[in-house]
Specification:
The protein is of the alpha/beta class. A 7-stranded mixed sheet has the order 6-5-4-1-2-3-7, with helices on both faces. Strand 4 and strand 5 form a beta hairpin. The longest helix is centred in the last third of the chain and has 17 residues. The protein starts with 12 loop residues before the first helix and ends with a helix.
Length: about 180
C-alpha cells in the first residue's frame, strides 16, 4: 500500500510549483463528480455553468499570469462515457482560466502504451499519483520523487501531449459523432 500525503497539503503543490503542473487522467469517471450538483445538472440539461469563480480557476489564473503552465491530457473512450462528456463540458471554465486541456482517444493511448494511472507531475521533479478504488472513489495521493519514476512520468507526459488534441478541436470531433 503506498503512503499517501496529507490531503490538507494537496492544494499547496498547485501554488508552489515553479514552471509546470501537468496531469494525466485515465479513468472513465470519478465518483466525486457523479456525487455533485454540477454533474446532476449536466445529466438533466447537457450543460454546465461557467464557474470561473471556483478557487481552482482563480489559482490557474494567478499561476499562468506568472508565466507558469498548467496542462492536462484526458483519455476518452469512444464513445465517451457520460462522465467524460461532463468533464469535457466542465473544462471550458478551466481553459478560460488558462489551463491547457487536451484529449486523447483511449485506443490511441493504448497504442502508445500509456499506463492507466492518474497523476500530476510538477516541474518534472515530483509527482502526485492519485489512487482510486474500483468504484472510482478517491483514496489518496502518493508523493513520488524517485528520479527513475519521475523520468517515466516525463516520458508518459511527452507521448500523451504530442498526440493529444486541444480541447476545442476535440469537442468538435465528439459533436460530429453524436
Amino acid at each position: 500500500m503506498p503512503e499517501f500525503i496529507n490531503d490538507d497539503t494537496f492544494g499547496s503543490y498547485f501554488e508552489t510549483f515553479q514552471h509546470t503542473a501537468w496531469r494525466l487522467e485515465t479513468r472513465r469517471g470519478y465518483n466525486s463528480d457523479r456525487a455533485g450538483e454540477k454533474y446532476r445538472q449536466f445529466m438533466e440539461t447537457g450543460t454546465v455553468p461557467n464557474d470561473l469563480h471556483r478557487p481552482w480557476c482563480a489559482n490557474i489564473t494567478a499561476q499562468t499570469a506568472q508565466g507558469k503552465r498548467i496542462e492536462r491530457v484526458r483519455i476518452m473512450d469512444r464513445p465517451p462515457t457520460s462522465e467524460q462528456l461532463f468533464l469535457l463540458a466542465s473544462a471550458a471554465s478551466n481553459s478560460e482560466a488558462g489551463e491547457d486541456i487536451r484529449n486523447l482517444w483511449r485506443p490511441d493511448a493504448e497504442k502508445l502504451r500509456l499506463p492507466a494511472v492518474d497523476f500530476w507531475l510538477f516541474d518534472s521533479r515530483r509527482a502526485l499519483v492519485l489512487h482510486f478504488d474500483s468504484a472510482d472513489e478517491y483514496l489518496g495521493a502518493e508523493l513520488v520523487d524517485d528520479p527513475a519514476r519521475i523520468v517515466g512520468f516525463c516520458q508518459i507526459r511527452d507521448a500523451a501531449w504530442h498526440y493529444a488534441t486541444p480541447r476545442e478541436e476535440f469537442v468538435a470531433q465528439v459533436a460530429s459523432t453524436v
